[in-house]
Amino acid sequence: MPKSRIRKKADYTPPPAKQTAAIKLTNRAWVAPVMLALFLIGLAWIVVFYVTDGSLPVDALGNWNIVVGFGFIAAGFGVSTQWK
Question: Using one digit for the tens of pLDDT, what is the confidence trace for 49-61?
Answer without folding.
Answer: 999 988 888 888 9
